[in-house]
Every structure is written in structure tokens, then in C-alpha cells.
Design a protein that fits this description.
Order of helices and strands of chain A: HEEHEHEHHHEEEHHEHHHHEHEEHHHEHH
CATH superfamily of the domain at 165-320 and 382-433 in chain A: Periplasmic binding protein-like II
Strand content of chain A: 15-25%
Largest sheet of chain A: 7 strands, mixed
Number of strands of chain B: 2
Shape of chain A: globular
CATH architecture of the domain at 165-320 and 382-433 in chain A: 3-Layer(aba) Sandwich
Largest sheet of chain B: 2 strands, antiparallel
Number of helices of chain A: 18
Number of strands of chain A: 12
Largest interface: A-B, 34 and 41 residues
Strand order of the largest sheet of chain B: 1-2
CATH class of the domain at 165-320 and 382-433 in chain A: Alpha Beta
Shape of chain B: flat
CATH topology of the domain at 60-114 and 154-285 in chain B: MetI-like fold
Distance between the termini of chain A: 72 Å
Helix content of chain A: 40-55%
Oligomer: heterodimer
Structural class of chain B: mainly alpha
Order of helices and strands of chain B: HEEHHHHHHHHHHH
Structural class of chain A: alpha/beta
CATH class of the domain at 60-114 and 154-285 in chain B: Mainly Alpha
Radius of gyration of chain A: 25 Å
CATH topology of the domain at 165-320 and 382-433 in chain A: D-Maltodextrin-Binding Protein, domain 2
Chain lengths: 437, 292
């Protein structure tokens, strides 16, 4: 009897172990290590975990999943799991990368201009050989995006959608007062004066979120001395070593001294500042191209929106085509068990077809050549098609809280009239030097 | 150990286990973390000793945040103390519209503090759309219109005014419960002895309320030390750090900057400040309790 009991127990244990170790296509454990994806003659199979940015239930999410569904339809053995990888989930996703259990595809784990993301490069797939093997794919991206996806000759990501920071203007006001979209800094000052004389606040800006306000200074600095010089000077607290930066700060001071900024901007939240612009209180706003989708419900139907590049400074020797941007960069885990399927997903995600659909249906701006620019904003196609090298906004400081707070606190003092241009230079240098690691 | 004491142990064990798991263990972990350089995962990058603590005292933003936290405590207490006392005494005495006035006082606290903060930021303090500036402009006082949350001189006070509006109900409830406990004979005896209303209030009511008020004072201090949601929703610590308090700075460092060990050191310093100040304050305040 004892032997029979032992035998029964062993059989049960074996059955249990067998049941638990089964790896069916429906297994959605989320642990990619259990899946051995393949690219056999039957196509892709196994499990693919894709980190994605839009929230479930949105049109953008549906379009994202549509790419995966198409792959599954063609490869019945393939199973795709979507993991939300944006906002509050970022910290969790980053911990997964650090602890060696990342998804097959993720966002925000690489940006060539954000040093804090470089710790992940050892785990990321260099796409250079894939681009060489499929030059059509490799050459499909706008040249300007390479500054954020490529480092030390290696490409660690692809831009699936991008936003550039540019100058939006109220086209009706500009037409009414005969103002041309400002091409140079002097044009901008003239436009400000005309609007001010007409009783319209020239520039809508928020004072409660300093990095958005600071975008004016960031742009002026890169127009005066170029992005890389400005980036280095800001991050190392050596602004005083670069004379052009003082000129940029003086230009901001001109805006402040001449009351060209929205009345009460100091206490105006950024959404409120945007609303003021769309309600006709101000004539211009420097903002990322997410503005129209973000404010879609608040833009009056008869509002005519125009956009142009940030004005140039003609007598500067710096590259005047440089543009500040925020790009969503998709990267692939090089240790993925389903590497080929991950690359295929990335390829399909950035195909002209998928990108065109995203541009047309949800207004996303693509970094892929040949994709139409979303309609509705006068001049947007010109801004995107004539964009020079793209550089990460806020000098990448938004990912380093202490530096970000210290630097933009000083910038705010300049805008609020607490600092003169030269005070700002010494204040920012002191603040940033104190935080050098 | 006698049998009676032995009997207590099994009853205490579950709660002691809970305290150990959810309070003592995390606190010990925080102390250990503050001595390391943790990158937010399951690995650390070595023992750093007191480096994070030394760095704290050289961090001007942190020192400013400590100053703002104490300023927040002082100002909010100076507002809550007299207003709470006045409203509690008034509510005890008034007969007409009592329900309506009670509703007005207690309604704010039923709102989520973040919702209340956003409402004030948008509809009361906004320089262009807010009620205050709109009203000032409407009566011809344009020059007094002001970016309340955008001026380093007014931002902290503006935030505190909102917190006072939101938190006053708690003070009123506590003070009313204290007033209800005072035997009416003592008040009547004082009146029979010829004391006026003010004398009764200052010589009888207030001393007998002191125990409640001193507890509220300590609670107000702890609340100020932990302040985070109102400031984060209204100013995020700006303009240029003028409303940055320890709670908001700690959040930025630990969760936005992912400097968990430095944030842990900050949390330990905050806990020490709360413990030292509240226990010292308690000794000074609760010098003598009047029994009645």
C-alpha cells in the first residue's frame, strides 16, 4: 500500500511538472526567457514583448497594435504582449533593464544626447548591420534624426515619431497686422512691437514650468554658439567662458524689458498659457508640435494656426538650422530571444504605410521620409522638411532632476526680471558647478 | 514573568509583526540605503558611508527647502490657530444659518487636496483668468492684480492660504470637541464672579483648551514637514525654488532624478528633524495639564 501511495505521488508530481513547463503560444507569462522565438521557414514564432507609449483605448494605441496584429496574422505561431512603458511605468521598465529582465522592445532607453540613458547601450541592439543589410530601411529616416539615434558610429534606436519645438503664431493676427512669420531675431522683435501696439500680448509663455519658458533661451543659445557648445557650457557650468551665451541672455532680457511676454506669465500654468494663445490673448507661442493634439479640444474651430522655425541670428557663425526636439526612440534588446521578430516589428512600425496612417489619423509627425505632415497647421510641412539636425530639448536635463532644477531656477530668475543677463550667467555657472559629479 | 504578562504576548505578536514588516524594516532599509549608492534596482554600487549626508549639507537647494518648510509651518500655524479658534467658538454660539456655515467650513476638506489645489491654481490665482485678479480689475484696482503663484514673494503665502482653506475644518472639529469637554459650570462660575466674555475666554476657556491646541500644534508641524501634494500641484516648488519644501525636493531627487540613496539620506534627516522638534516641542508645550 505504501509503495502504491509513493508511486501515485510520483506520477502526480511528474504530471504537475509537465503541465507547468508547457510552452504553448498562449502562454502569456511575460517572461521572454521562456520563449525561444524563431524565424524558421514558417515565419516568426514565440513570444515578443513590446513596450509601448500610448495608453490603451486610444487611437494611437490601436494603430500600434495594428502593426503587431498584422505580424501575428502572417505568423500564427507568434504571440505579442504589449507593456505600457510611458510616464509612471518608466521607472519600473528601467529597473527591468538594470536587473537583466527587459522587454524585447522599449522606448526611452537610449538617446545619444541624454547621458543618463547611456548605461543601457551594452544591452541594446546596434541596428547598423540591419540598416546595411536593408539599405532601404536604413535610408528611410530623416537625416536630422541621426543626432539622437547614433552614438560612436552605432545606431541604438529608431525614431517612431518626433516633435520639434517651433514658433506657433496666430495667423489671423499676422495677416491682420501685415506681419510675416519672423525669419530673423529682428523680425521677431518687430512682430512683437506691432502686436504690442495692437494691444495683444506678443508671446504666450508659462512661468510655472521653467523648462518651457527656458526653451527661448535654449534656442537663442544654440543660434548664437551652436548646440554642442551650449550643451557643454550649460552642463559644466561654464557659460561665462562662451561670450555668445551672454548675447543670448541679453536677447531674453530684451523680451522681458519690453514687456513682450504674456501679462502675468509668471503665475500662468503651461496649459493656461496655451489656452491664452488659442483664445487670442497672445500672438505667438514657442512650443513642441504636440501642441495641437494636446489642445485639440480647446482650439476654436475658426482658429488659423501657423508655425515657423525659431528665428535665426544672421550674424552668428553657428548652424542656424539646428532644431530642438523630443523624439520617441524605439530600441531593441540585443539579448532578446526573439530578435528577428523584434527587428521586423520595428521595421513595420517605421514603414511609410504605418507612419502615414499614424500621421493622418492621429496627427503624429513622422521621422520617416515620404510620410505626409499632418494637416491643419500652416507651414508645418516646411518646418519638418527643412529641419536641420535635431537635438534633444532642455539639453537633456529633464532626465537629471538636480541639474534640471538648479539650471532652470536660474533661467526663471532671468525671465522674471530678478537677474540681468550677466547675473544669470554667473548664477547658472555657480549653480551647475556646485552639482558637478 | 508572571502568567498575566505571558498572556499578553500572543495578543501583541500580530501587531508587532505588522509594525516590524511595514515600519521598522523599511526604516532600517532606508538607513542602509542612505549609506550606499543605490541605482534603483536589486544591486548597489557599494558602501558610501556618510557621503550622502555630507552632500546634503552642501546642497543649497536642500537647505533652502528646509527653510521653506519651517516658514510653511510658522505661517500656516499663525493662520490656522486664530481662524480655527474663532470659527469653533462662533459655531458653538450662533443659532441662525449654523448648518450653512458648517457646510462652508467643512466642505473643502471633503475635496481631494490635489483637486482643490488645481482649482485654486486655475480659477483663483491664475493671473488672467483667476477670480482674484478679475475682481481687482473689475473694481479698477488693476495695479493690485498680481501673478500670485508666479512671484517668489507671494507664492509660498498663496499656497499656504489654499492649504488653510482646505485644512481649517480639521482644526475647527478638534477645537469644538475640546470646547465641548469644558464643564459649563466652570464658565458659569466665572460669569457669576463677574468676569466678562473676553475674560472668560482668555482666563478660563483658552487654558482649558491648551491640551487640544498643543496637540494641533504638533500635528501642524508634522503636516508641514510632510507637505507635498499642495505644492507639487500648484507650483512644483517654483518660482525658482521659492516654494520648494523638503517633501517636493525629496520627490524630485529620489523619483525624478533616481538618486534613491541621496533621497534616503534626505528622508532620514527629515525624520530626525520631525522627531527632535516634535518631542522637544511637546516637552515645552505640555508643561502642565489642567485636570477638570
Amino acid at each position: 500500500m505504501k509503495k502504491f501511495r509513493l508511486f501515485t505521488l510520483l506520477v502526480c508530481a511528474c504530471m504537475f511538472i509537465t503541465a507547468c513547463s508547457g510552452n504553448t503560444p498562449n502562454n502569456s507569462s511575460g517572461d521572454s526567457s521562456q520563449n525561444t522565438g524563431s524565424n524558421s521557414e514558417n515565419g516568426f514564432s514565440g513570444h515578443l514583448e513590446v513596450g509601448e507609449l500610448p495608453a490603451e483605448g486610444t487611437k494611437t494605441y490601436d494603430l500600434f497594435v495594428e502593426v503587431g496584429d498584422q505580424m501575428i496574422a502572417e505568423n500564427p505561431g507568434l504571440e505579442i504582449e504589449y507593456t505600457f512603458a510611458n510616464t509612471k511605468a518608466r521607472a519600473f521598465m528601467e529597473q527591468r533593464w538594470r536587473s537583466g529582465n527587459p522587454p524585447d522592445i522599449d522606448y526611452f532607453v537610449f538617446n545619444a544626447q541624454v547621458p543618463s540613458t547611456h548605461e543601457f547601450t551594452e544591452q541594446l541592439l546596434d541596428l547598423t548591420p540591419y540598416f546595411e543589410a536593408d539599405p532601404e530601411w536604413g535610408d528611410s529616416f530623416l537625416e536630422s534624426t541621426k543626432t539622437v539615434t547614433t552614438m560612436d558610429g552605432k545606431t541604438y534606436g529608431i525614431v517612431t515619431d518626433t516633435h520639434v519645438q517651433a514658433l506657433y503664431y496666430n495667423k489671423d493676427y499676422f495677416d491682420q497686422y501685415n506681419i510675416a512669420p519672423p525669419e530673423t531675431w529682428d523680425d521677431l522683435l518687430a512682430a512683437c512691437e506691432t502686436l504690442k501696439n495692437a494691444g495683444i500680448d506678443p508671446i504666450a509663455v508659462t512661468g510655472t514650468y521653467a523648462p518651457y519658458m527656458g526653451a527661448w533661451l535654449d534656442y537663442l543659445m544654440i543660434r548664437e554658439v551652436g548646440y554642442e557648445t551650449a550643451y557643454e557650457a550649460v552642463r559644466t557650468g561654464t557659460l561665462s567662458d562662451v561670450p555668445g551665451i551672454l548675447k543670448a541672455a541679453e536677447k531674453v532680457q530684451t523680451l522681458v524689458d519690453n514687456d513682450y511676454l504674456l501679462q502675468g506669465f509668471e503665475g500662468t500654468d503651461f496649459t493656461a498659457a496655451q489656452m491664452q494663445f488659442f483664445q487670442g490673448k497672445a500672438g505667438m507661442i514657442l512650443m513642441g508640435t504636440w501642441l495641437t493634439s494636446e489642445m485639440a479640444d480647446s482650439i476654436p474651430e475658426d482658429f488659423n494656426l501657423g508655425i515657423c522655425h525659431f528665428p535665426i541670428i544672421p550674424d552668428s557663425s553657428a548652424d542656424q538650422t539646428e532644431i530642438l526636439s523630443h523624439s520617441n526612440i524605439m530600441s531593441i534588446n540585443k539579448n532578446s530571444e526573439n530578435l528577428e521578430a523584434a527587428v521586423e516589428f520595428a521595421k513595420r512600425m517605421t514603414s511609410v504605410g504605418a507612419q502615414t496612417k499614424r500621421a493622418e489619423e492621429v496627427g503624429l509627425i513622422s521621422a520617416v521620409k515620404g510620410v505626409p505632415v499632418p494637416e491643419g497647421t500652416f507651414g508645418l510641412d516646411e518646418v519638418i522638411n527643412n529641419a536641420g539636425p535635431m537635438f534633444v530639448r532642455h539639453f537633456g536635463l529633464e532626465f537629471e532632476a538636480d541639474l534640471n532644477t538648479a539650471y532652470y531656477n536660474e533661467v526663471a530668475k532671468l525671465f522674471f526680471g530678478e537677474y540681468s543677463a550677466s547675473d544669470f550667467i554667473s548664477g547658472a555657472d555657480k549653480a551647475m558647478k556646485s552639482l558637478q559629479r | 514573568m508572571n502568567a498575566r504578562k505571558k498572556l499578553i504576548i500572543p495578543f501583541l505578536l500580530p501587531s508587532m509583526a505588522l509594525v516590524a514588516v511595514f515600519f521598522i524594516l523599511p526604516a532600517l532599509q532606508t538607513i542602509v540605503l542612505s549609506l550606499q549608492d543605490w541605482d534603483g534596482t536589486f544591486r548597489t554600487t557599494g558602501f558610501k558611508g556618510l557621503e550622502n549626508y555630507f552632500r546634503l549639507f552642501q546642497d543649497q537647494l536642500f537647505l533652502d527647502a528646509v527653510g521653506h518648510t519651517f516658514a510653511y509651518f510658522v505661517i500656516i500655524t499663525l493662520l490656522l490657530f486664530p481662524i480655527g479658534l474663532f470659527l469653533a467658538v462662533a459655531l458653538q454660539r450662533i443659532k441662525r444659518y449654523k448648518m450653512f456655515i458648517q457646510f462652508c467650513i467643512f466642505m473643502p476638506v471633503t475635496l481631494s487636496v490635489v483637486v482643490a489645489a488645481v482649482l485654486w491654481k486655475w480659477y483663483i490665482y491664475d493671473p488672467n483668468m483667476g477670480i482674484i485678479n478679475t475682481f481687482l480689475r473689475a473694481i479698477g484696482l488693476d495695479s493690485l492684480a498680481h501673478p500670485w503663484l508666479g512671484d517668489s514673494k507671494t507664492a509660498l503665502v498663496a499656497v499656504i492660504v489654499m492649504s488653510t482653506w482646505h485644512g481649517i475644518a480639521t482644526w475647527v472639529i478638534m477645537i469644538i470637541s475640546g470646547l465641548d469637554r469644558i464643564p459649563s459650570e466652570l464658565i458659569e462660575a466665572a460669569r457669576l464672579d463677574g468676569a466678562g466674555e473676553l475674560t472668560v475666554f482668555f482666563k478660563v476657556t483658552l487654558p482649558l483648551l491648551w491640551e487640544v491646541l498643543s496637540s494641533l500644534l504638533i500635528l501642524s508641524f508634522i503636516n508641514a514637514m510632510q507637505q507635498f501634494p499642495v505644492i507639487f500641484a500648484m507650483t512644483q516648488g517654483g518660482p525658482y525654488g521659492s516654494t520648494e519644501v523638503m517633501g517636493t525636493y525629496l520627490y524630485k531627487i529620489a523619483f525624478e532624478g533616481k538618486m534613491f540613496s541621496y533621497g534616503s539620506a534626505m528622508a532620514i534627516v527629515m525624520a530626525v528633524i520631525v522627531l527632535v522638534v516634535s518631542s522637544t516641542g511637546n516637552k515645552f508645550i505640555k508643561t502642565e495639564t489642567i485636570q477638570y
